[in-house]
Amino acid sequence: MSIDNQVDRGTEKKYEQLSPFELKDELIALADANMRKTAHVMINAGRGNPNWTSVVPREAFYLLGQFAVAEAKLDWDEFPGLAGMPQPAGIAGRLDQFLTAQTETDAVRLLRGSVEYGTATLGFDADAWVGELADAIHGDHYPVPDRMLTHIEQVVHAYLDLAMGGAPDSGWDLFATEGGTAAMCYLFDSCVVNGMLAPGDRIAIMTPIFTPYLEIPQLERFHFDVLEIQASTTSADGMHTWQYPPSEIEKLADPSVKALFLVNPSNPPSVMLDSATLERITQIATKENPNLTIITDDVYGTFVEGFRSLMSVASANTIGVYSFSKYFGCTGWRLGVIAVAKDNIFDRRLANMPAADRDRLTARYSSIALEPEKLKFIDRMVADSRDVALNHTAGLSTPQQVQMALFSLADLLDKDLSHRKNCEAIIARRLTMLADALGVEAPRDPNAANYYVELDLMAWVKQHWSAEFAAWLESEHEPVDPVFRLAEQGSIVLLNGGGFDGPQWSVRVSLANLRQDSYAEIGRWLRQIMNEYHREFQDRSKTN
Questions:
Q1: Rounded to whole angstroms, how far apart are CA atoms 204 and 213?
Q2: pTM exceeds cut of 0.85
């Protein structure tokens, strides 16, 4: 039975107004109903949560926790079930003794290597470094400094330098957050509070993009004037490259554009900006629109060889957001970080604001600083995250920061790049399975992370069937019809690409969250659904 028998076109149009993540719930319900009637197993490729987990940094975390508990008991163990707090004096030596008593495992080697990296490479005092780790994992103090623990900030900075294509000469200040989503919420709010942006300002968004970045600017307290920068470049055979033509990038040179928001590599296409685009945006921010605020979400950058972020090349104008969730398989940990170059336009703009605005902000932050007018933008963001009044309890929980550091150290110490190569190999196999089942050649794009693929069904139809069939399909059906048919007939859940402001007749497939054979199943069902449409087209053609 076709979805046309269940949902009329008017209802389908209403569904198109939903965020793809809300529409997903409708599709899951439909797929679940079909699953109960058939032997199909639901295949949900609508979520980006990877089905791999980085194990060694977790094992190291649990082992370090055991050491921290022993240290707390060493400090004070008068009553059963109660202990003191890890003390730093001599603690590095005691950790070495603790690790020597363990069976030699990758987790033991990571902890040893972490201590050595901190002391030999970053110049840490051994007791201060191990003491911070032990106290932080024990979770017995508020985060101090609240923005990020001192040694852990330097470790994560080194990791970002490796992952993002190099740090600016001045380096970054980092703010550890509850995942990338919290980071974005803090950024939007603090940009408005501190006058970087004002409600109604014109902002540019590079599309397609993760749907919340389209929805947040429309909220009443922001109500930005949104200019879309569209990835409309195509190859000679009419397929999307997901790059931006120069004419789109030139729109950023207009000083009326106050900010640029992007995900790089993009979501859903997961293709990074090419070098020419990076260079042109950097030139615009440096010379033609020097007050441009750039906010880049680079969570997928670690999946592309040679990735370079705007936070590395246009550092003074850029606020970077990175999440550990995808690369290390740790969405439940909620580990994110905001990076702002120490030499940045935001602090300069705060210093040069009109007196009335400076007075307003001085009053806002007067309870947390003796000279609030000198408070850095990133430190204002920390305070704003707790409505200023609760600034003394701000910051990401200290055990979370330890896990973030251990993930970072695992990659910094991975000289063979084994983790990255394994992740890339997993994704490549899945992409090949999907492409083979679709009957197309797997794309070979060095700019692609391939964490997701965005399949433009119209481009596929034109290439493999005909332009006439494509025109009929567009006139007779709604763009969300294929995802409903997939759910109803095959118990397969995909997200509609139009919800990301991508091509209306596109679907997003996550290559991260399913076992390999599921992608062959997705490809087969997509071909079957499109063949079903083609038979309808042929039948209609015969009767006309």
A1: 11
A2: yes
